[in-house]
């Protein structure tokens, strides 16, 4: 684990936000090393030079995400969005299957199940999702941390309930991967975008599948999903990749060049250290809100804090150089590794006026 001094030095060398940025739940800041890598990769395209090396970045990113998720790299697919990954999972379910979801969860985790039209999609309050698993439940789909308010699912209770009733599980770590330690091997399927807490560019999302692929069909497979991609460019793919790469979508190569550097930074700092830093700032904010007479929605242990009724103040705060977000009427602040106690206090001062 990095010392506090080393942690702070690494962060200061990588981030130069203008103003106070407390909106990682919308998108993370790009580290300096990532910006440099994106520029260099874009120059390859601009100058007409070979892009072969960029394919190596894809595999390095896949391996880094596998390490962060604590799963073998063979279980990780590289795609473009959580919605696309959810769609592949939804397509694998038989007609009439019951999918248990959380009320108000992020649309990308939910909508593909609804548009099937022949599934029984049941929604319950997120705090009741574990107790709501029943024998007829085929799949539980939920975000590890809720986008609107930061509530963290009791993942241990959910895992035990799903096992007890023979239900499969799908967990979206988009609002958790990078600050909340995760063990994707505990779930049948899991996914995460890379542009939030993992500090990467937009356009990349990872999917973790079981070793036997969990009954998924590679419905979106193109040439890149072949065991030998360059021999799979024409006609049907005759041999799909033997790993989760069979679920890959065509790679935005320039983005992967940048994401590789972002994931390197996350690993250098360590998720445990990032978790301690982020949640300490969130706790400071909660305490400050209480002193101002504001009561945030309950999200203990989360790096995301939302306050009901204050959403309309988002534009005013943005004009003052403080970036937060308005979600579901709430004012949502999200604290990450580049934030400081001084920035927490600046937001509190602004809210006191």
Helices and strands, with pairings:
Blueprint: H1 4-14, E1 20-21, H2 32-47, H3 52-69, E2 76-79, H4 82-91, E3 98-102, H5 107-116, E4 120-124, E5 137-143, H6 155-165, E6 168-172, E7 189-193, E8 205-208, H7 253-269, H8 271-292, E9 304-308, H9 314-319, E10 322-323, E11 325-327, E12 330-334, H10 341-352
Parallel strand pairs: 1-10, 3-4, 3-5, 5-6, 6-7
Antiparallel strand pairs: 2-8, 7-8, 9-12, 11-12
Task: Describe this protein with a few key phrases.
single chain; 353 residues; alpha/beta; seven-stranded mixed sheet; three-stranded antiparallel sheet; 10 helices; 12 strands; 15% strand; globular
Could you please describe the fold and organization of this structure?
With 353 residues, the protein is of the alpha/beta class. Helix content is 38%, strand content 15%. It contains 10 helices and 12 strands. Helix 6 links the parallel strand 5 and strand 6. Helix 2 runs antiparallel to helix 7 and helix 8 runs parallel beside helix 10. The longest helix is centred in the last third of the chain and has 22 residues. The mean pLDDT is 97.
Short characterization:
The protein has 353 residues and is of the alpha/beta class. It has ten helices and twelve strands.
List low-confidence stretches: none
What is the number of beta strands?
12
Give, in order, the helices and strands: HEHHEHEHEEHEEEHHEHEEEH
Largest beta sheet: strand ordering: 2-8-7-6-5-3-4
Structure classification: alpha/beta
**What proportion strand?**
5-15%
Count, helices = 10
Mean of pLDDT:
97
Shape verdict: globular
How large is the radius of gyration?
21 Å
Largest sheet geometry: 7 strands, mixed
End-to-end Cα distance, whole Å, is 39 Å
């Amino acid at each position: 684990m990095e010392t506090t001094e080393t942690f702070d030095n690494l962060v200061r060398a990588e981030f130069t936000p203008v103003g106070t940025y407390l909106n990682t739940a919308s998108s993370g800041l790009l580290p300096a090393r990532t910006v440099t890598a994106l520029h260099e990769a874009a120059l390859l395209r601009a100058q007409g030079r070979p892009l072969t090396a960029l394919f190596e970045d894809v595999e390095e990113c896949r391996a880094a995400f596998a390490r962060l998720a604590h799963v073998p790299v063979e279980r990780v697919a590289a795609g473009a969005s959580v919605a696309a990954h959810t769609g592949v999972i939804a397509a694998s379910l038989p007609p009439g299957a019951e999918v248990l979801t959380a009320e108000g969860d992020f649309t990308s985790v939910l909508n593909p199940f609804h548009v099937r039209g022949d599934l029984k999609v049941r929604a319950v309050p997120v705090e009741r999702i574990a107790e709501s698993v029943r024998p007829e439940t085929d799949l539980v789909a939920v975000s590890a941390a809720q986008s609107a308010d930061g509530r963290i699912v009791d993942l241990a209770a959910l895992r035990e309930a799903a096992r007890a009733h023979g239900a499969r599980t799908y967990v979206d770590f988009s609002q958790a991967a990078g600050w909340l330690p995760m063990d994707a091997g505990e779930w049948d399927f899991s996914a995460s975008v890379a542009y939030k807490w993992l500090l990467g560019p937009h356009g990349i999302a990872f999917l973790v599948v079981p070793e036997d692929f969990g009954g998924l069909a590679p419905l979106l497979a193109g040439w890149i999903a072949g065991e030998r991609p360059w021999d799979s460019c024409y006609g049907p793919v005759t041999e799909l990749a033997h790993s989760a790469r069979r679920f890959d979508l065509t790679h935005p190569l320039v983005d992967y060049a940048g994401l590789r550097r972002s994931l390197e930074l996350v690993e250098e700092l360590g998720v445990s250290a990032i978790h301690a830093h982020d949640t300490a700032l969130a706790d400071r904010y909660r305490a400050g809100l209480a002193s101002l007479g504001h009561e945030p929605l309950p999200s203990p242990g989360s790096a995301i804090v939302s306050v009901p009724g204050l959403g309309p103040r988002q534009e005013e705060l943005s004009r003052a150089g403080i970036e937060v977000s308005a979600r579901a009427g709430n004012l949502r602040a999200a604290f990450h590794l580049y934030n400081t106690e001084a920035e927490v206090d600046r937001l509190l001062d602004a809210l006191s006026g």
